[in-house]
Amino acid sequence: MSIKNYKLVFMGTPEFAVEFLRHLKAGGILPDLIITQPDKPEGRKMELCPPPAKVWGQDNEVPVWQPEKARDEDFLNKLREFKPDLILTASYGQILPQALLDIPRYGCLNVHPSLLPLYRGASPVQAAIIAGDTVTGVTVMIMEAGLDSGLILSQKEYPLTEDITAGELLLDLARLGADMVLELLPAFLAGEIEAREQDDSQATYAGRLDRETGKVDWTLSAREIHNLIRGTQPWPGAYTYCAGKRLKILSSSVLDDSGKNFAPPGTLVSCRNTITVACGTGLIDLEIIQPAGSRIMPCCDCAHNYSEGTVLGE
């Protein structure tokens, strides 16, 4: 059975959605329509910028719709007139109403970057890294009105290395999700896949991140802080304060994970080729930072600007 005989709509917005679309196209599937979020003001000048999925759609000559709200009746009527056979979603950014889920002939499938019911919600990849998980994965499910609670069609695990960032992992899981969809779609459309229910008693949730998510608590262990730094990269980013000025931390490595306490938490214990900081337990090396009002720089180039004994967070 060829998917090309079916009218496919894709709903997605950020780079995760674009990477999914790229891989889907490489596998021979191009959606007939892309639905994404409206353009948003960005940067210091607050100029309107299109979401990544819109740019990809225009580059690939796929029609793009940008409804303000997925529950707007005018939009829903327009989608009904389009008569999609199937809707695929990957990081769209809004909860879809039942009225929309009822439109396509074969329903709506969602690609969610976690092993549901773990990490339902908006930031499953970041949550898995911050929690220090060693395995995550992707779930393809049949959407329902609840939050990531639909029937599971397929799941695949993906191992986590101790240094992968949220940005890197999102792209890896987008490619994995596309492979899974390419594999299962013919059987799903033929009614040959038996979906299974999620165990709601095992559900955990990963809410939206905000800028405060990345604030470093130096009383945590070196490993926990390292996980926070990579789990919030590239957004919202980890940060602390040095002499009252905001200091962004883009990359780190764990120097000591023994559980020992070397100095008061946040204390700079070495400022030679790297900036080594004492945590609640253990030591962490800062590798790439961005001081307030300055450029991003590797610590090997700027460690000499800092003094041993300085306490971060103050």
Walk me through this protein's architecture.
This protein is α/β, with parallel strands linked by helices and 314 residues long. It has 2 domains: 3-206, 3-Layer(aba) Sandwich (Rossmann fold); 211-305, Methionyl-tRNA Fmet Formyltransferase, Chain A, domain 2 (Roll). It is 25% helix and 26% strand. The protein has a 7-stranded mixed beta sheet. Strands 12, 13, 14, 15, 16 and 17 form a 6-stranded antiparallel beta sheet that branches. It has a two-stranded antiparallel sheet with strand order 3-4. Strand 1, helix 1 (15-26) and strand 2 (33-35) form a beta-alpha-beta unit. Helix 1 packs across helix 6 and helix 5 packs antiparallel against helix 7. The longest helix is centred in the middle third of the chain and has 24 residues, at 166-189.
Structural class, judged by helices and strands? alpha/beta
User: Distance between the terminal alpha carbons, to the nearest Å?
Assistant: 63 Å
Please write the CATH class name of the largest domain: Alpha Beta
Second rung of CATH, namely the architecture of the largest domain: 3-Layer(aba) Sandwich
Taken together, the total number of domains comes to 2
Overall form: elongated
Largest sheet: 7 strands, mixed
Low-confidence residue ranges: none
